[in-house]
Amino acid sequence: MADRPQGSGVPEKGTPEYDWLYGSQSKSPPSDATQRVEAQQSQGGRSDETRVMPVARREARGSGGQPPAPARTPAPAPPPRPKKTKKRGRRLGLGLIPLVLILLLVYLLGVPLYHWTKIDKVDAAPSGDRPGDQPGTNYLIVGSDKADDLTDEQRKALQTGERGGTNTDTIIVLHTGSGGRTMMSIPRDTLVDVPDGGTQMINAAFASGGAPLLVQRVEALTGIHIDHYVELGFGSVINTVDAFGGVEICPKQDMKDPMARLDIKKGCQEVDGQTALAYSRSRHVTALSDLDRVARQREVISAIGDEALSPWTFVNPVRYWQINDAATGAIRIDEDMNPFDLGRFALAMTGESQTCTMPNLPAPSDPNRIVADPDRAPALFNAIIDDSTVPKNACTPTGRARQ
């Protein structure tokens, strides 16, 4: 290569810059000169092959010789979010539960209120002096021959026509209070005093003077203040029992009474409405006649109350409607009774209660009639008046003294 003139920017020969740029033939290069590294020939390879040098990590280059920081473990990916449609559906389902409960409550309250407007009201308050208010509540339950709501088929089976409810063979005082519930029957053949002198059967008061006169006679006989009056007709008993699907009765002997159109065997059994009514009205089979009948009347009423407590009564809307419709079809109540009073009466009809017949004796003037036992009856009457526990010896199924 020809020498270049000075000042051309090319370093002069022999200078370190020249040797660094073009190489030097000196065997002992300066200590700060760049050293040429001889390529090592790999086995089976060529000596002039370009050798790939390892690449230093950027972290090592810029860390001043410090070891590289440990690699970060990537965070796990978040789980996939549930679809909004499912959450909406779940929320919608949960939101329907309170709505269904509200509708059920409205139905349970609305059905009785609606049927209450269809019930016949009667003025049952007697005139004249009456016993004062007493603790607890006393209902007078009267079973009448009201049959104007019976179907033609039912009238044919009972062999009866339309009746307005002028006769009764069921008179029951139902007491509720702190002393417990007591159901006391007053046999229809009971003789009572009349204002004009003399005596008459207590059911004659209902036939001649209706509810007010009957309430007056019961209060005069017992001293018990009657708070509310409830009259049940034939149709009410038959249709209510049938709406429940039958009730259980347990006759203690075979009973065949053509006059009541009854023919059943001894033992507990399910019966329909017509059989239940005939069972509660029969009085020509057993020895004590009307005294045994009033015990069977309480048995049927208690059986209806037991069925009313069944949860199936409330969860089945059709059954609930039919029962309310049947129960109010042939019923009369006093004018002072409101829907809440009627509801308390319905509750009083359910559950356990003491069942008694008014303590009685054969009437001295007529052995086919009875009178209140002057020794034992006051104990039962006073227990009801005072809302206290009824003595056991005053509460018997037939009203006769325990032997």
From TrEMBL:
Region (Disordered): 1-89
Composition skew (Basic and acidic residues), residue ranges: 46-61
UniProt biased composition (Pro residues): 67-80
Residue ranges of the TM segments: 92-116
InterPro entries referenced in this protein's UniProt entry, alphabetically: LytR/CpsA/Psr_CW_biosynth, LytR_CpsA_psr
Keywords: Membrane, Transmembrane, Transmembrane helix
Cell envelope-related transcriptional attenuator domain ranges (all copies): 167-307
Name recorded for this polypeptide: LCP family protein
